Amino acid sequence: MGSIVFMVIAAAAPLTVIAGTIPLGVGAGNGAAFPMTFVLCAVVLLLFAVGFCAMSPHVPDAGAFFTYIRHGLGRPLGLGAAFLALATYTAVQAAVYGYIGAAIDELVASLGGPSVPWWVWTLAVVAIVGVLGYRHIELSSRVLGVLLLAEIAIVLVLDVVVFASGGGPEGLSTALFDPTQVISGEVGIAIMFAIASFIGFEATAVFRDEARDPQRTIPRATYLALVVVGVFYAVSTWAIVSAWGDEAAVTESAANPATFLLTTVTNWLGPAGGLIVTILLVTSLFAAILAFHNVAARYWYALGGHGAFPGAVARTHTRHGSPHIASLAQTILAAVLVVIFALAGLDPVAQVFAWMAGTATLGVLVLMVLTCVAVLAFFARSGVDRRVWHTRIAPALGLVGLLVCLALTINNFATLIGGSTGLALAIGAVLVVVFLAGVVVALVRRPTGPERSGDRVTPGGAPRENA
């Protein structure tokens, strides 16, 4: 269980959330009360996880939301969900690509190097990730482990110092304990960023075939991952807000979201602490990008194997054994998006990161809502599990909570992207069109490969024994 939880937390890139999400949640969301938003979202996701984990043993290829939706609601909606998931992970990757360009430029400038446009650094990262994905080279788990522990350690050191000092000029913030402040401001934006911070927790189900006792290990790992991540985010956000004071935190995060964490750490831990955070932020962002690239490439590969995409993307490299064409397709798509953002003159953090993270969150919320419905439909139809809490009550409560989150997110989406209702509608329309495209493909093209033959497959489309 510990290993599975470790893998999920590592993929979450916690320092990326602390540096990228907290400034936006505090500055554009519900202000100093943003820490409590993590707790509320964690509770909703825990309810969702109950049904998700209960259905996991009954889904052969339980590695992604779309497999649950396909088993619960049928192939057309399942394939629509697969298309939406690909768009969602691409949006997440694009968001982090924007942020890493600004982070690298900040690091190089702090070391006395030249300052260049963010997209120059980002395109260099796109190329590196593309090579790694093509060759299927995995970063050493030990190196990733050290970097993860370092990420968490530097934030925990900041937390301890702030709390031991009794907070900043105003003491420890109490805004998160005031319900009126929790629901104040743009609470929909706050929820959107908080939910986005948990993206990837469902990956625990991928490891169920490797667990000694999956029916016990996977639920426990899922719940523990949600609790650990939720508490870490909430406590760290509370410490950072307290370090500034409520009003000053909101003002600073809104004015300088890209450097909010760096300034906080430098003020409290000195220049050395600031340099460490800057370096670890770059490595955290890179690890997150590589993870999202691999996930997105596997969606290309799976959709090619199921006949939804050209069969070429389902090929593997003869020497490397990698889904090289799928990886190349995702690399090209990412590069095109970066070029578009650069030509449009978008700010890499306040616009690229915020807009794409918001887009991804809309997609993830829709996927989780559909998964909740699929869980309820699956157990109602099959009757394989008679536990009322696990198969009815918890999934229903999770569905209600997710629908509220989705409604708030949609209602506040235009505010997030600068008040442009037209742009908000356009982004929403793109997600709808992508989902409907998957449904149409499922209706007009017969299933091929694993879906038709009944083989058990991983999310990447490879047979279990070859995974």
From TrEMBL:
Residues 448-467 are annotated as: Disordered. Keywords: Membrane, Transmembrane, Transmembrane helix. Pfam families: AA_permease. The keyword Transmembrane helix applies. Its main location: membrane. It is a multi-pass membrane protein. Residues 4-440 form the Amino acid permease/ SLC12A domain. The keyword Transferase does not apply. The chain crosses the membrane at residues 35-56, 77-104, 116-134, 146-167, 187-209, 221-241, 268-292, 325-346, 352-380, 392-410, 422-444. It comes from the Bacteria. It is found in: Membrane. PANTHER family: AMINO ACID PERMEASE, AMINO ACID TRANSPORTER-RELATED. This is APC family permease. It comes from Actinomycetospora rhizophila.
